[in-house]
């Protein structure tokens, strides 16, 4: 066996990398809100977004292995300014994402103290701020989880809890307990004319974000043209299986009006363990989910900043942001992240309910990421046309127009998601449609506006060099 072969990624390892980057137990309560209709929309979303995003990002990663990532792809296709916009969208969406995952962790931890705290805004804000600032300061030392511990976190925080939720629901149904959903033809085939049904795409697309981060490994595969489509197929099946069954499990046990977006997972475990007199197991589940979720957050604190540092090095941000300490960490960038996350936490005070605040942040994060994907799909089509003979380890199957068709399919998925993102579900208290529209639109503007400052700084710096 050659040295090169030793470092090749197997189909199984690639499947684990992809599913690990996508699957998240915290997304289950949001998708559970939509009951049995989520089956159709999960599959529909995989066709119009998940699969196109995987194929496109895999080809781009294979074609430009030395300059991989959304900044370089967009810069090559659309220019420096669009590259900065793309990487900014990728970075700033994670700033909005942090409060959602940390509020999930806070709500889960509340079940060790008092479950009522999961609906207390000040408790959630307090835990989010303390946790994120502590993790930020720890990351000043360049902390990275080992792949072994990261794997443990994925199993403890996602795989085991999801399997337990599905198993608990199976036992719940067999034991004759009431089920909150019904698998009728009417429920399984939603009315596509209903805007409320389409709103489920916001929650579902959130569960699919991040595929482009996993496909960078395509160049480390033996025979990627054959192996990657197979690994992608397995990954999509696993993602759909776990997300659909996990969501349905919550919808089956918890009445729709009672589902909490931050503690829906713990609601299921609490109700099940109480019914079968197994409450002593609950603290074990809580600790597992907290460890698993924190493991994911730790690695994400540094990773998004690295992409933005590329833009800083090209003059879109002051050089101070790219300055690294002796542990090779851009401390000012991490401090900026912490301050921004702290301010975004105030969104919990802008909505009348915790569910409303969580949906607002989830929706805002998803929309920002969707705009980035729009740039990625357009860039992919441009680059295939501009460099038709570019050597690459993987090319989207289907011939000359495969990239065009795949890109268009992905753009359609993005367009639909962006459109429905401006409308909240009727089942969530957001203080009225107009209140939500104003806060949501203002959030989008505030998150994107600094890009103009970057353009001005880049122009000013270019004139004075």
Q: Topology, pairings included?
A:
Layout: H1 3-6, H2 11-22, H3 28-32, H4 38-63, H5 70-78, H6 80-110, H7 121-139, H8 147-174, H9 185-188, H10 195-198, H11 200-206, H12 211-214, H13 224-253, H14 264-275, H15 282-313, H16 331-344, H17 354-386, H18 402-420, H19 433-448, H20 450-463
Helix pairs in contact: 2-13, 4-11, 4-13, 4-17, 4-18, 5-6, 5-17, 6-7, 6-15, 6-16, 6-17, 7-16, 8-13, 8-14, 8-15, 11-17, 17-18, 17-19
Succession of helices and strands: HHHHHHHHHHHHHHHHHHHH
Query: Which fold does the CATH topology refer to?
Result: Amino acid/polyamine transporter I
- Counting helices, strands and paired strands, the structural category is mainly alpha
- Highest-level CATH class: Mainly Alpha
**Count of structural domains:** 1
Instruction: Please identify which CATH superfamily we are dealing with.
Output: Amino acid/polyamine transporter I
Q: How would the global form be characterised? A: globular
What does this structure look like?
The chain has about 475 residues and is mainly α. It has helices at about 5, 10-20, 30, 40-65, 70-80, 80-110, 120-140, 145-175, 185-190, 195-200, 200-205, 210-215, 225-255, 265-275, 280-315, 330-345, 355-385, 400-420, 435-450, 450-465. It has a single domain (about 10-460), classed as Up-down Bundle (Amino acid/polyamine transporter I).
């Amino acid at each position: 066996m050659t040295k090169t072969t030793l470092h090749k990624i197997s189909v199984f390892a690639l499947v684990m990398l992809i599913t690990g980057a996508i699957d998240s137990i915290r997304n289950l309560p949001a998708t559970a809100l939509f009951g049995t209709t989520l089956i159709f929309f999960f599959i529909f979303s995989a066709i119009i977004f998940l699969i196109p995003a995987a194929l496109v990002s895999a080809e781009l990663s294979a074609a430009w292995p030395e300059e991989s990532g959304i900044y370089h792809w967009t810069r090559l296709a659309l220019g420096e300014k669009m590259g900065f916009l793309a990487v900014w969208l990728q970075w700033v969406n994670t700033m909005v994402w942090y409060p959602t995952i940390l509020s999930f962790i806070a709500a889960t931890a509340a079940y060790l103290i008092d479950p009522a705290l999961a609906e207390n805004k000040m408790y959630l804000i307090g835990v989010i701020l303390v946790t994120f600032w502590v993790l930020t300061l720890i990351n000043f030392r360049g902390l990275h989880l080992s792949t072994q511990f990261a794997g443990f976190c994925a199993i403890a925080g996602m795989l085991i809890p999801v399997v337990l939720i599905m198993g608990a629901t199976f036992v719940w149904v067999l034991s004759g307990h009431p089920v909150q959903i019904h698998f009728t033809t009417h429920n399984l085939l939603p009315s596509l004319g209903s805007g409320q049904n389409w709103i489920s795409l916001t929650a579902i697309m959130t569960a699919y974000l991040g595929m482009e981060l996993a496909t960078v490994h395509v160049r480390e595969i033996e025979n990627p043209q054959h192996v990657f489509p197979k690994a992608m197929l397995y990954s999509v099946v696993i993602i759909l299986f776990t997300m659909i069954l996990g969501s349905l499990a919550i919808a089956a046990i918890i009445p729709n009006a009672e589902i909490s977006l931050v503690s829906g997972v713990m609601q299921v475990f609490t109700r099940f363990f109480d019914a079968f007199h197994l409450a002593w197991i609950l603290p074990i589940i809580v600790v597992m989910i907290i460890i698993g979720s924190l493991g994911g957050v730790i690695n994400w604190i540094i990773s998004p900043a690295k992409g933005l540092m590329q833009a800083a090095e090209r003059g879109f941000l002051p050089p101070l942001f790219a300055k690294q300490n002796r542990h090779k960490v851009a401390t000012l960038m991490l401090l900026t992240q912490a301050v921004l996350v702290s301010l975004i936490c105030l969104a919990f005070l802008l909505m009348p309910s915790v569910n409303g605040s969580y949906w607002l942040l989830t929706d805002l994060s998803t929309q920002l990421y969707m705009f980035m994907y729009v740039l990625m799909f357009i860039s992919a089509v441009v680059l295939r046309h501009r460099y038709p003979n570019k050597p690459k380890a993987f090319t989207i199957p289907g011939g000359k127009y495969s990239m065009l068709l795949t890109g268009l399919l992905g753009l359609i998925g993005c367009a639909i998601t962006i459109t429905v993102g401006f409308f909240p579900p009727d089942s969530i208290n957001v203080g009225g449609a107009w209140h939500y529209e104003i806060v949501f639109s203002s959030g989008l503007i505030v998150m994107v506006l600094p890009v103009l400052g970057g353009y001005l700084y880049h122009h000013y710096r270019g004139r004075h060099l």
